[in-house]
Design goal:
The structure is a homodimer of 240-residue chains.
Chain A (H helix, E strand, L loop, with lengths): L2 E5 L13 E6 L4 H10 L4 E4 L3 H9 L3 E4 L27 E5 L3 H7 L5 E5 L4 H10 L3 E6 L8 H14 L4 E2 L2 H13 L3 H5 L3 H8 L3 H7 L9 E4 L2 E4 H6 L1
Helix pairs in contact in A: 4-5, 5-6
Organism (chains A, B): Sporocytophaga myxococcoides
Keywords (chains A, B): Hydrolase, Magnesium
GO molecular function (chains A, B): 2-phosphosulfolactate phosphatase activity; magnesium ion binding; sulfopyruvate decarboxylase activity
Chain lengths: 240, 240
Amino acid sequence: MRKVDVCLTPELLHLYGVKNRVVVIVDILRATSCMTVAIANGVEKIIPVAKLEECQSLRQKGCVGAAERDGKMPEGFDLGNSPLAYLNNAYAGKTIAMTTTNGTLAISKSKDAEEVIIGSFLNKTAVINYLISQPNDVLIVCAGWKGKVNLEDTLFAGAVVEGLKDHFEIENDAVIASATLYNYAKKDMLDYLSACSHVKRLKNLHIQKDIEFCLREDQFNVIPVLKEDALVDMEKLVLT
Amino acid sequence: MRKVDVCLTPELLHLYGVKNRVVVIVDILRATSCMTVAIANGVEKIIPVAKLEECQSLRQKGCVGAAERDGKMPEGFDLGNSPLAYLNNAYAGKTIAMTTTNGTLAISKSKDAEEVIIGSFLNKTAVINYLISQPNDVLIVCAGWKGKVNLEDTLFAGAVVEGLKDHFEIENDAVIASATLYNYAKKDMLDYLSACSHVKRLKNLHIQKDIEFCLREDQFNVIPVLKEDALVDMEKLVLT
């Protein structure tokens, strides 16, 4: 039976190992939510980069520059980290260079995986159905906050585990913990998360609408997948 | 207001910092449960050491040698890691040299703290009352399993957080997550933990009695505290 495991922060990734596994990157507030919306709204590809300088350099070569540090957009970029900015095909056909505090680091640490896909509540069922359909073990990698565990990514990991539990064997206690937390919180995730540190941080930045949007389930039937250092629409990849 | 934080594995301890904090070391199955029972049953002191060789060397100098690796006692020691062995004052007045897979590492990584104390379900309320009575911030350090997060230590962290929440400010999401998990599981922790990896591991070693014992709350009104590289009874320390 295939196995599913959960790594609660990239800081623990060296204890797992990504080889021969499909890795699901999770950064609910807000990197992987942004990526989901962007790809669903026709963005051609997203190049995740670790540093602001790389992002600026790609921007000067013609990419749209999306950057976030500590929840805010640094000066000199086109976009911050709001998923709402990509709605209505606002950036359809464009290539986005994106750097965020946690999410892009989780991607770069997972590059040796069999496949790297992007998960968020917005494409939850698409992700679950894809994972069930493919043959490999699964590792869900939560981006966390500066190395520490966060609640919103853990809840999403639990949501995926719930979807996979009849098809996959559970590997570690973090899998059980995340599923318990999701089942506890799912009736009103916004209420449960209102006490959590990153939601407090974002509320201070007046982006309550982003938070509410990122917690909606199954808005898009799309899976961003990493292909040669850029995220693209899995469906388009299959067709080409 | 004083703060309470939870570090879910020693592998993340570098992100926290122990200075000026009281650190509570948690290794429910079974190191800190053993330490609680031992001190409550008159053991003079416990010297936690990282390596089997150090433990053996102290044993040859007259200590009782307690050693555990992967749940089992290696050859050539006096005791394994069963808390039941210390009952009925079996080792009263003795000095124990102790090495375990996870717990003793968590202690050695926390040595720069203001104070290091030992927590387990067996002395839960004694630990909570002491933490409320003293002036410092608190960091609960779960020993985990070989660097990964485990359920039983997380549940105990949540139990302590529940006891402290009216007196301490919550610092991070791991604090909220652990309290939610404890409140969910507390009615029947043995049942909840029956799916968890370490309980499965220990069941295979036929030490079900140890597991049941380690989950009993408030059996002993005692706090082992680290004093010059050895754990001693806090009450005796105050008297001398």
